[in-house]
Amino acid sequence: MSRQRRTINHIGVWRLNVVRLVFISVVLGLGWRLADIQVLNPDFLRDQGDARHIRKVPVAAHRGMILDRHGEPLAISTPVHSVWLNPQEVNATPTQIANLAKVLQLNANTIQKKIKQNQNREFIYLKRRVTPELANKIKQLNISGVALQREYKRYYPTGEVTSHLVGFTNIDDSGQEGLELTHDAVLKGVPGLKRMIRDSHGNFVGGGEQLKATKNGKNISLSIDLRLQYLTYQALKATVNKYKARSGSAVIVDIETGEVLAMVNQPSFNPNNRRGLRSSDFRNRAVTDLFEPGSTVKPFTVASGLKSGKFTPSTIIDTRPGTFRVSGHTIKDFRNYGQIDVSTLIQKSSNVGASKMALSIEPDQLWQGFSSFGMAAPTGAYFPGEAMGHLPDPQTWRKLDRAVLAYGYGVSTSALQLARGYMVLANGGILRPVSFIKTEEVPAGRRVFSRKVMKQVLTMMERVVQLGGTARKAAVENYTVAGKTGTIKQATSGGYAEGRYVSTFAGIIPASQPRLAMVVVIDDPQGKEYYGGLVAAPVFSEVMTGAMRLLNISPDNLPVNRLQVAHK
User: Fold this and answer.
1) Model-level pTM?
2) Together in a domain, 397 and 532
């Protein structure tokens, strides 16, 4: 063999050995790498894969329902979807972004800016709580990095009929107003947690591993009777519109249990659509707004006088000549009632008679009497923003302060607080808390007046609704009613405004065996008719006529001839 040939063969063998060596090295390297990945350090790549495709996803808790006392829904949560995106994974053409914007009714440039400005984040919302139709359209777009998340949206079937009472939640389903806020901790529950796998488009694959169980919120049953709520809402709205009043409130309470059976305000709002509303539109005036109650507290004055032992229902008080000077201030009656007994004082609503009675007893006795009816004290309802009212300290009282307090000036209260006071009159002298939650047991209370005194005052108040009284329009056919009207001048920064009034009526039915108490407040009625007996009293009559039928409460004032037929 020639020298040249031997050289070529030597080079070929050398190259072959190099190739073999490289091949063996690659195989060994791959084997080592596989061993490292599969045996020695398997967690790293698994974690890297999980980081790209597995997410711990919160599972929204179903918020509990709010029901009336008969199980009718006042607030429910329905499942919806929210649209979100991962800016780090969005892979969409300008056309896809434009289509996405069109479906969501957003600006395409706004979506592009969100993506660019949030590149360090993995989650941002595009639109919350979209309709099922929109959710399906988003799925059909099939855009990588854009996905849907299941949430719940609060819905209020009764709309503005119960809006001030029930309140509403925010976009994250947390209570913001009313009983939604009061009982938020009970209603909202505890969110769960799942480990979910995402596909290449960022959508979660069904199923998943539960890491933390979802604890749904609990339902709550209110004391509210939706039937009475509707009756009260309709009657109050019609009256506020008729008299072009600024606002109105009405409260109905159960005499024995203190349960609030109805509470409405006007003007109201629709909690399902709150666009354009102000925060002031949401306040529950029956609980948060204070007013001077006027003559509706004269029964409190009379009760204090009877409790002192200085007066009886037949005690004569001289109201002539229809005016009374106290510390340079003239107290007036509608007309000169002459010498009248205490029962007539209530029937005719004599300011002079009430002032003379208040000045005849000790200041501490008068203050204690008003305080016993719950004036300027918490009602026990724990409603957000509840106002306490104001009852002046007797140590600071002048003679005039006592005189005007007797007919409801210088003291402030809310409609709910006044209704609680009338509960004391009706239940025989026991002060109990009021409640918006349905109860099966009568809550504990404390006796503040004797049953005898309360019965005497209640009997006097029946004359208010009878011939010669100030509230004939509060009468309910076949039932006895005990009540009291109030017509109060509105306080302003400079004193009391002329021509502006608050018209009120507070009543109890049936008077012989009380079941319900109701307070009606009409703020600033327009026109010549502004007296409580003409404006507020008819609301009581209309609502209670329906309430007696709905609650199947037996009549206690049937005509004699009908009673005779019934006994035959």
Assistant:
1) 0.84
2) yes
